[in-house]
Amino acid sequence: MSLNGHVPIFPRLKAASLCCEVARGLCSPISPGHGIGRPSVSHAVVVIFLEFFAWGLLTTPMLTVLHETFPQHTFLMNGLIQGVKGLLSFMSAPLIGALSDVWGRRSFLLVTVFFTCAPIPLMRLSPWWYFAAISMSGAFSVTFSVIFAYVSDVTEEHERSTAYGLVSATFAASLVTSPAIGAYLSACYGDNLVVLVATLVALADICFILLAVPESLPEKMRLNTWGAPITWEQADPFQSMRKVGKDPTVLLICITVFLSYLPEAGQYSSFFLYLRQVINFSSATIAVFIGVVGILSIIAQTLILTVLMRTIGNKNTVLLGLGFQILQLAWYGFGSEPWMMWAAGAVAAMSSITFPAVSALVSRSADPDKQGLVQGMITGIRGLCNGLGPALYGLIFFMFNVDSYRKMKFCIYNTVSLSIQKSLIPGPPFLLGSCTVVVAFLVALFIPENTEPPVVTCADAKDTSMLAGVHINTPLPGSDEDTPAPTSDEDFEPLLQDSFV
């Protein structure tokens, strides 16, 4: 002890250093030296495939458990559960992204995958706890944000768009195959086996991260930023959207994205339940429907989109995609026969070209020094829609008593038997969604199309990848954005060139 009663400065520095080392050990549960090989896109692809394959297996059992748990208000509860999950994911994504910049990607891959898949075994143990856990897991359901940051770390600028496309295609492939496998296992062996298989796949994903995934964030970046404070600006999910109104073109694009993606997010959350409850699709038919529409969407977003971008231009491609979305939502809203759902599904696959075309339009319209900011606005708006859309659809289903339609058989009036279900609109939320997309189409007409794309710097591209959420804004194959921007020697980072990509 010193004469004034205080601890001398050198022991205090040693104690502070020791505390920092202990904190690092607690907050970094996996050390950076582990893993198989050097960090690559292949590691990210495996993590994404296993996580969404596990959830895709549960498509059929989840519809059954949802109806059994909430028989009176199935659509309403589904919308509220998915809405809470989406809002929590929107609120937490910037914070987790900022923390992964400080502590590394690998630790947060483990955290996000673990908490996202934690509700799976609860499906058969306690349905109430299962749905409560799904809602709360939204705070960690941001695996895509960390994955795209991981990909950004291990690829160079000219490889990044291809790598993002590979990750997105892997996500689509997992959801194309897994529902059919889950439906087959459920029909042959019961839902318990499906839940068990999904749990084992999720555990395999966690073990793969622990044993095989190396840290992608360079050591010098983690050491330099360790202990750096996370500001409110970094963690604020509304930060980027506050600047929407400063540019008229960006404002029009953001309004278009909000009005078009709000019904799309609601549709994703409830459509398979709608096919099961209202259209009376069997589990096997739903699985086949997912597979067919998924394959058609992949074709539309690759081959057809590239042709349209080169022939009719960026803005016209966006308008065409919005037109297809209006048609498919109206068809879902008025359709009451199974063949109508299949036809509308084919149109829905064509409408999937909208967001990639909007992303390219944003890249062409924004100034070179605002690329990351504008893409962050678009991603933030879509994240907000992921929370509002499902809740809105669930509320509309509840207001129109859609759960009651399938319970009513016939009504006798003037000795004529009339079907109540067929006399009403089967899918009111889809019809309302088509109206909002009509407004989005009218707004998009006023978006000026800039034919000269700006040059995107490496720093902007990295910022954009960090802001990405469930979908990534990638340049289109063959477009001008696919050409790498020149970088100086000072900006060069020795990132790994993945030969597979």
Fold and architecture overview:
It holds the Pfam family MFS_1. InterPro entries: MFS, MFS_dom, MFS_trans_sf, Sugar_transporter_CS, Tet-R_TetA/multi-R_MdtG-like. GO terms for molecular function: transmembrane transporter activity. This is Major facilitator superfamily (MFS) profile domain-containing protein. With 501 residues, this protein is mainly α. It contains 22 helices and two strands. 70% of the residues lie in helices and 1% in strands. Helix 2 runs antiparallel to helix 10, helix 13 runs antiparallel to helix 17 and helix 15 packs antiparallel against helix 21.
Structural descriptors:
single chain; 501 residues; mainly alpha; Growth Hormone, Chain: A; 2 domains; two-stranded antiparallel sheet; 22 helices; disordered C terminus; Major facilitator superfamily (MFS) profile domain-containing protein; transmembrane helix; MFS_dom; transport
Beta-strand percent range:
under 5%
Question: How many distinct helices?
Answer: 22
Which CATH class of the largest domain applies here? Mainly Alpha
Shape: globular
Largest sheet: 2 strands, antiparallel
* Low-pLDDT regions: 1-33, 404-423, 451-501
CATH-scheme architecture of the largest domain: Up-down Bundle
**Total number of domains:** 2
What is the number of beta strands?
Answer: 2
- How far is the N terminus from the C terminus? 61 Å
**What is the CATH topology descriptor of the largest domain?**
Growth Hormone, Chain: A
Strands side by side in the biggest sheet: 1-2
Task: Supply the helix-strand structural class.
Answer: mainly alpha
Mean pLDDT: 75
Domain Major facilitator superfamily (MFS) profile: 40-452
Transmembrane segments: 44-63, 75-96, 103-122, 128-151, 163-187, 193-213, 250-275, 281-305, 317-334, 340-362, 383-400, 430-447
Biased composition (Acidic residues): 479-492
Keywords: Membrane, Transmembrane, Transmembrane helix, Transport
